[in-house]
Each structure stands twice: as C-alpha cells, then as structure tokens.
Amino acid sequence: MGIELEKVLENEPWQKFEKVAQEILEQNNFETKLHYRLKNGQEIDILAQKGNVVLCIECKKLGKKYNRNYKLKLACRQLKKKMQTLANKWNKKIVGVVVTLWPDVIVEEGIYVIPIFALNEWLKMIENIVFK
Tens digit of pLDDT for each residue in 43-68? Predict the structure, then answer.
C-alpha cells in the first residue's frame, strides 16, 4: 500500500505532496500550519505541534531525480538553519523532518528523512521517544 501512495504522488504537483503530509500529521493529532513564514523571509513547508514538540517539516519530492543525494543534504542543512531561528524564539523541543519519495528512512545531519508512505508509522514509533 505504501509504495502505491509513492507512485500516485510521484506524478502529482508538490502542493498535493505537502497536503498529504499535512493530513497524515493531523490524523496523528498534530496542529499544523502550512507554509510557516519566519521573520527572515524563509519558509517551513509544514510546522506541526503536539504538546511541547514542534516538527519542522520540509517536503521534497526527491524520488528518482538526478543528484538527489546532494539535494537531500542541502535540504537538511537549510532546515537546520530554519530550526535554529525557531529555537531562538521558542522554548520547545524542535525536531527536523524531511518528507520525501526516497524509499529509505535515514538521519542526515541530525534531520530525520522519512518517505511519505512511512510517515504515519514513523510518527507512531517516535511517540514514546520524542514526547517524553
């Protein structure tokens, strides 16, 4: 079933990809804000909060495109900078996540990289780790 979602989203515009990620977060009781603007003009695709935890989520359709390793590392570096801006402003636990079409769950530069089809299960798995 998960791979089917990936195949469907592969041909959809990025807006649909973000909306599906947002819906998965909301189904897991997160309050979400799509396209959260920072004061420095940067944007976070989805800001999701549950209790004292804020997930900063970038949605990147890095499926089978050329040079995806480089683009993934760049996205993670950029997200870390955005997270630092939030950390200076809020007293909350901030977790970085890049949601992709990439088939593997990995951690890159301290940022979780999660395939869209695994996001729901990942959210349930980290419940006991991150929210303690």
Answer: 999 999 998 899 999 999 875 666 77
Domains of the chain: 2-130 (3.40.1350)
Residue ranges of alpha helices (H) inside the chain are 2-10, 14-27, 68-89, 119-130
User: What are the structure tokens assigned to 100, written together?
Assistant: 């992709």
Tell me if residue 58 falls in helix, strand or coil. strand
pLDDT of residue 1: 45
The dihedral sign for the CA sequence 32, 77, 7, 126: negative
Q: Please give the pLDDT value at position 41.
A: 86
Q: Alpha-carbon distance 57 to 14, whole Å? A: 14
Distances in whole angstroms, Cα of residue 71 to Cα of each of 65, 66, 106, 122, 126: 10, 9, 15, 22, 25
Phi-psi region of 15 (alpha: psi -120 to 50; beta: other; left: phi over 0): alpha
